[in-house]
Amino acid sequence: MESDFKRILIVGMGLMGGSFAKAIRYAVPAIKMDGLDLDYESIETAQALGIIDAGFSQTQEEKYDLIVLATPLGAYPTIINMLIPWMAEGALVTDLGSVKERVHREMVACLPEFVSFLGGHPMCGAERNGFSASRADLFDGKVFFITGGTNCPVQNAYIRLLEAIDVQIVRTSPKEHDTMVAKTSHIPHLTAVLLSTLMESEENFKNYIGDGFRDSTRIAAGDPKVWRDIFLYNAPAILEDLEEFQRKLNRLKNCLQSDNGMEILDTLASGKQFQEGIKE
User: Fold this and answer.
1) N or C: which end of the chain has fewer CB within 10 A?
2) Of 114, 136, 121, nearest in space to 22 by CA
3) Percent of the chain with pLDDT over 90
4) What is d(CA 36, CA 18) in angstroms, rounded to the nearest whole number?
5) How far apart are CA 141 and CA 124, in angstroms?
6) Could you tell me which of 276, 274, 227 has the C-alpha nearest to residue 127?
7) What torsion do the CA atoms of 129, 132, 135, 139 make, to the nearest 10 degrees?
8) What would the mean pLDDT of 148-154 be, rounded to a whole number?
9) What is the per-residue DSSP string for 141-188?
10) Per-residue pLDDT at 1 exceeds 80
11) Could you say which of 3.40.50.10470, 2.40.50.140, 3.40.50.150, 1.10.3660.10 is the CATH number of the domain covering 177-278?
């Protein structure tokens, strides 16, 4: 495949940005692609491996017609303001972030009129962080949400690039996206973190952790800065789901207090039935 983009920039060369860069490089070997990261060792490694052509420099003259944000959400406005001089006329800015509604509002506020924004969120990840954890197949066959956008050439070119790395593109509105991922991603991560903190005062128990605890809390090892921003940016949807979750916890608590085994059994059966329906 030949690229429709003259030069692209991946901002954030950690797990997600590094994996995205690798996937693009392998799908479109001749593409011109640079990287930007505060950890310059990641940039040097990516360049040495041939994943990127160069690290971004404020002294360069080249401009970008595609910029992909793969950083914590809260850093977006600062990054955009810094990169405006290096955005080509008609360029596209997109991202790999886990929240969309607030991001769309911020992009409208800070992007120049000659640049468009298209929200993106791949439903994949890993508990390890950094460029060393990145891999080219991270996105293979995974759902990739696209939010907002219009039927314009630069956005269509980006869709073709995504198709080249073999993702399942799903278009939705920013609000619908945030409502879905609050339940399927954000609340699960929050509960994994809280379960992990139950062990903070039980140092001796770490020697007796079983597979159930490991399976339930594995994702709590995600990057704290990334997840802090996710929780804050999607607070409205998360708070709504937490209210429902709290009601379910209180109901189960009442069952335990009243020795109501039948309702506990019904709850366990419902959970088992749902889990069996999502197994691959």
Assistant:
1) C
2) 136
3) 86
4) 11
5) 10
6) 227
7) 20
8) 88
9) T-EEEEES--S-HHHHHHHHHHHHTT-EEEEE-HHHHHHHHIIIIIHH
10) no
11) 1.10.3660.10
| Ramachandran angles phi, psi of 90, nearest 5° | 80, 15
Percentages helix, strand, coil for the chain, rounded to the nearest 5? 55, 15, 30
Domain ranges across the chain: 8-171, 177-278
Q: How many CB atoms lie within 10 A of CB 244?
A: 11
Total residues belonging to the chain: 280
Tell me which amino acid residue 184 is.
Answer: T
Q: How much is the mean pLDDT over the chain?
A: 94
Place of tokens 């692609």: 33
With a CB cutoff of 8 Å and minimum separation 6, the contacts of 142 are 122, 123, 124, 167, 168
Please tell me what DSSP assigns to residue 35: E
Q: Which two tokens stand for residue 197?
A: 């903190």
pLDDT of the residue at 150: 82
Q: Domain 8-171 - what CATH class? A: alpha beta
DSSP string, 230-272: HHHHTHHHHHHHHHHHHHHHHHHHHHHHTT-HHHHHHHHHHHH
pLDDT tens digits, one per residue of 236-275: 999 999 999 999 999 999 999 999 999 999 999 999 999 8
